[in-house]
Design goal:
Blueprint (H helix, E strand, L loop, with lengths): L1 E4 L4 H13 L3 E4 L5 H10 L6 H17 L5 E7 L9 H11 L6 E5 L8 E3 L2 E3 L1 H24 L8 H18 L4 H12 L3 E2 L7 E6 L1 H5 L8 H7 L3 E4 L2 H19 L4 H28 L10 H8 L14 H11 L5 E7 L3 H17 L4 E6 L4 H30 L6 E2 L7 H6 L11
Parallel strand pairs: 1-2, 1-3, 3-4, 8-9, 8-10, 10-11
Antiparallel strand pairs: 5-6, 7-12
């Protein structure tokens, strides 16, 4: 039996495929959904759904059509509930697949209950071993992707970073498949990183991409290949790790337990302990992976700090989508000078993300020194989507250029091209560098 899964960047899916094969499953990742999948999804899904529903549903039907059969397959996906259409995805999958002529079981596990509930369906055991393997794969994929987007805009040899990431995905797959763990894989990936030549000394604006999960995470037509397009336009995109979402789910779970503690203190203390252990484990994995990779990937954001920044604008108790995180991450990126520009991208009519957009005007007013834009995707109107970003991107480029010129006047001329094997830049550069280069590219 084949387990069909998807919805994450390619490097993540390769790691997950290896981990699931180690657990004894025949896992098959879906390709990146494209606009053809969107058309198929709109044909078979109910009206009024958001782009992720159409893209992922259409991608499933397109995949099974290409395979020619689906008798030995089962679809595995993550489920949820709350004020978001995400909770209805599984219903759309089942309806659309049936109407397209494919009788394929759809298995879901609730992302917020995965720690507490264990079950088996169609031979697939969703238990803590399964969840831990999934978390390791996601963390490893995040770390690789973080480095990729840090280096790709500055590569001295075109295509070298793409080759490195492709190879990194294969390494993760092989190591996870053999059960050797992601730590050994990351060490080999880091050794290969030393072969890439980069030129960080270029005035490129750092652009944070956030918003609805699918829209900010996909690398395909679902967001008009936004990250790659920003690179082509002379910017450095900052893509949020999927691990941040896991960390947020655990943070939200702990918050809910605290609110119900008065009902049964012993029971909820036990739940709290489980959640805190998993939270520590996830953060430990990420920190350890960062260390193996020379601390090049950015650290996970502190959920407590994000809540602190957001609470004056958005009630952290309101759930749905990323909740208060969009507001908190916007403030974090500007206050800590991690980005020149912030883009909030979402599907058309995404309610949770639209709620946070409602207060971003006040955030922009209070921050003062921020370049922020909110954009929607609908599968069409790509020219309008990108033209709106271009207007703000020009401002970000000017800001980055001014910082770069100011830095040049302080440090003078230094060697431009070096490899990722270097541990640090010349001392005079490190000690006097401004936020644009020193804090954003530690080596």
């Amino acid at each position: 039996m084949k387990i069909i899964f998807g919805g994450l960047p390619a490097v993540h899916q390769k790691a997950i495929k290896g981990a699931m094969e180690f657990l004894g499953y025949n896992a098959v990742p879906l390709p990146e959904p494209d606009n053809e999948a969107l058309k198929i999804g709109k044909e078979y899904c109910n009206r009024g759904q958001c782009n992720p529903t159409y893209y992922t549903t259409g991608n499933l039907i397109k995949f099974f059509r290409q395979q020619g059969k689906a008798d030995d397959c089962v679809v595995l996906t993550v489920g949820s509930c709350g004020p978001c259409r995400f909770g209805m995805y599984e219903m759309e999958y089942r309806k659309a697949l049936k109407e397209a002529g494919f009788n394929v079981p759809v298995i879901t596990f609730n992302q917020s209950e995965a720690l507490n509930n264990e079950f088996e369906d169609h031979g697939i055991k969703i238990n803590r071993d399964f969840v831990v393997s999934l978390i390791k794969s996601i963390v490893a994929g995040d770390l690789v992707n973080d480095i990729y987007y840090k280096i790709k805009p500055y590569e001295a040899v075109s295509g070298s970073t793409d080759e490195w990431r492709e190879n990194a995905g294969e390494i993760l797959y092989e190591f996870m498949r053999k059960g050797r763990g992601f730590e050994e894989a990351l060490r080999e990936i880091y050794r290969n990183l030393s072969e890439i030549e980069v030129n960080f000394l270029q005035p490129k604006p750092k652009v944070k991409i956030m918003g609805e999960f699918f829209a900010q995470t996909t690398e395909g037509d679902g967001n008009y290949r936004l990250a790659q397009w920003l690179i082509d336009e002379g910017a450095e995109p900052i893509v949020e790790p999927v691990t941040t979402w896991i960390d947020y789910i655990l943070w939200e779970k702990e918050r809910n337990i605290k609110e119900r503690m008065f009902k049964d203190r012993f029971r909820f203390l036990k739940e709290m302990m489980i959640v805190r252990i998993f939270t520590y484990y996830v953060r430990y994995l990420y920190s350890k992976g960062r260390k193996i990779l020379g601390n090049i990937p950015s650290p996970l954001k502190d959920q407590g700090l994000i809540e602190k920044y957001a609470k004056d604008y958005y009630n952290p108790g309101l759930t749905g989508g990323e909740g208060h995180m969009e507001v908190g991450k916007h403030i974090y990126m500007i206050k800590h000078k991690k980005a020149h520009m912030v883009i909030s991208v979402k599907p058309f009519g995404c309610m949770p993300s639209t709620q946070s957009d409602g207060v971003q005007t006040k955030v922009v007013e209070d921050l003062g020194d921020t370049i922020f834009i909110s954009v929607e995707t609908s599968g069409d109107a790509e020219a309008n989507f990108k033209s709106r970003i271009m207007m703000k991107l020009y401002e970000a480029k000017m800001k980055a250029f001014e910082e770069y010129e100011s830095l040049k006047r302080k440090v003078g001329n230094i060697k431009v091209v070096y490899t990722m094997a270097n541990k640090k830049l010349p001392e005079r550069f490190v000690t006097t560098a401004c936020n644009y280069l020193s804090t954003l590219h530690p080596l």
